[in-house]
Amino acid sequence: MYTKLEQHEDTAQEQGLDLEPPVRMEEEKEVMEEMEVEERVVEIEHPLPCLSESDTQGIIKGRDLFGYVGIEAVLDQMRRKTMKAGFEFNIMVVGQSGLGKSTLVNTLFKSKVSRKSCTPNYEEKISKTVHLQSVSHIIEEKGVKMKLTVIDTPGFGDQINNENCWEPIVQYVNEQYEKYLKEELNVNRKKRIPDSRVHCCVYFLPATGHWLRPIDVEFMRRLGKIVSILPVIAKADTLTLEERLEFKQRIRQDLQANGIRVYPQKEYDEDAEDRILNDKIRENIPFAVVGTDKEHQVNGNKVLGRKTKWGIIEVENIAHCEFAHLRDLLIRSHLQDLKDVTHNIHYETYRVKRLNESNANGVVLSPLTLENGTLEKSDAESHL
């Protein structure tokens, strides 16, 4: 840097003058002060990267805190609010008659929750068309309340001609999305919007031991785009262990060959821990299940099982069937994730589609422009 001191020295040399020590000391002091000011200005004009807004966020862990803050108490607050309000879970069961849908649902929730079980003087009739019916219950366990809605699909796959038998089911699922969207668009929205959206569809496959039928492929291909589908092999005790293993492998091959998306999808895994857990589930899909609501004595203990000439098939014994895996997935490990996928993926896809349609038509989407669903359903509530 060419300083004022050097300029002064050059001028003095040209004039033939000698600088006296006091003058030189004062010059040096003045120059040093000016250099310090310039450095401070440079620091202000060019702040260090650590002071930028994007880099101000840091991680303060427990050992760095001065004392107890109480952040963990938020979990207790959330738990109390959830226990007071309760939550909802809507499950749809689809499959032809005689596959044990009602029995399996009763086994899952260890109570008479199926439409068949809670309807007085129920008569089994084969419906000529697919007619959706639902029944709701409030189930309470250890202070936690859950409103469970089971949607049944009598008549599905029971006709000689099953063409388009999935259309009423697709229509029902979309109508529940439409109903929720209408509530969201209201100016004065409810504090808590009633959720009738289908969170999971359990699809029952007959234990043929062969390949998927055309109706199975077509149904799961269409429904897999709008709802979380979980295929199960019904009445798996009719197959030997070797037959069951081969059948499961064939079904997985068919699902992959036809591009059928079943829950849980790989693209929805949030982290490595989820991926490891879900990979184990994907390896076991479809679950080979057996359902029953009858108890038997086995080694002095009461167990749910089916009694045969050769012994008792224990429903919750993973060596006998995979019911326990299905139960854990639906209730104990992935129930909230099923609801999140329904809301954040399937419902969001439907909502964006409807908004785009309204924009393309030049119509502002509002509750007045939305039509109510026409599909009837009978809802009966009981407290267990």
From TrEMBL:
GO terms for molecular function: GTP binding. It comes from the Eukaryota. GO terms for biological process: cell division. Residues 1-11 have a biased composition (Basic and acidic residues). Signal peptide: none annotated. CDD domains: CDC_Septin. It is found in: Cytoplasm, Cytoskeleton. Residues 1-20 are annotated as: Disordered. Residues 85-357 form the Septin-type G domain. Belongs to the TRAFAC class TrmE-Era-EngA-EngB-Septin-like GTPase superfamily. Septin GTPase family. This is Septin. It comes from Cyprinus carpio carpio. The lineage of its organism: Eukaryota, Metazoa, Chordata, Craniata, Vertebrata.
